[in-house]
Amino acid sequence: MSESHLTRFLLLPELKLTDFKFRSTDRFYRAIKESRFEVCPKCATPSFKVHDRRKVTVKDAPDAGKSKWITIVKRRFRCPKCKSVFTEPIQGIRKGARVTQKFEHSILWACEVFSDLKKVKTTYKCSYKLIYKCFYRQLELKQREKMNDPWPKTLGIDEHGLFRDKKRGAREFATIFVDYTNKRVKEVVEGKSHAELEKGICHIKGKERVQNVVIDLADPYKYFVKNYFPNAKIVADKFHVLRLLNPAINRRRIGITGDKRTLGIRRLLLKNGFHLDYFTRSHIWKWLENYPELKEVYAYKEWLHRLYRCRGYTKARRSLIAMIDQMASSKIKEIITLRRTLQKWFNEILRYFSTRITNARTEAFNNHAKLIQRKAYGFKSFTNYRLRLLNACS
Ligand SMILES: [Zn+2]
Q1: Distance 8 CA to ligand 1 centre (A)
Q2: Bigger pLDDT: 218 or 114?
Q3: In 191, 206, 247, 346, which residue has its Cα 20 to 30 A from 337's Cα atom?
Q4: What's the pTM?
Q5: 236-261: average pLDDT
């Protein structure tokens, strides 16, 4: 390997090594750029006249765990035509940057691979400020490419908690919009009020393209979708409907058996009876004989599962009407509430049977969002959190 090749490998393509010093934790290199002339950035005239020299030290990606510093004696040229003084540019170092682009890329890679940014910081021995700058600049660029994509045909909306202010203990919410057509997060908005949502998504074009929106049984989202997406039909999420009676079952069961985690019945009652074997199922029903209230709630929960096993819209509609009718004679508070919910969401629940869309995907992205939050130990800035989420889930 010739000397110049070695220099290029160690440093940057245009630089010539003049001196080096190795310390236990650091490696110092000195280099200069050797070119006959430089071109004026203002008027593009070649300049051969060196005005003066300046020393600049930049940090490069660490080498075998050792910090790498390159001190470059940069020449400043005076342009013969416009008389302005300019510093020679160095390939691989952004103008005015204190680190090489190789280092920036290396940090970016680490941000994606390492479990948290703290590890990036210790490995690269650099400041959080630099990490954030590199990382979010890159994310912003990637995001900008996708900014102009219009709304998809099918959308999922869900909320998730943000733990941002640990001192105040305030729990804030974010709303996540999932693009089902392209399987990615379309937008994340801080808050869940009508005004906040509208502000957060107004930059996305083509809201009339949206045909189906899956949501959980939350009134604010229902009204928002009805107002904002002119052609959208709302689908109530199957999994949320199935879970509606779980709290009522749990509360009663705890009253009977206590809340020991080892109790088998704890999970069995919440499971879809259809998937249990015959003996377990008959055992549950026999056990429920002693507790008529719990039995009634359990029976309705099973009915919800049965409803979702219906094939086709017409059969499902018949089943849902029958359930609502029978619930009218119930004395249990939760059943009366559920009846009202089912009536209110009648069309949205049935729409599942003609579209077969659920919010499972949104839930998956929500879990991913929680993971990102945990990795980053909470985000100080929602902007950064949003960028991270949009890039991670697309
Ligand atoms: Zn010039």
Answers
A1: 30
A2: 218
A3: 191
A4: 0.70
A5: 88
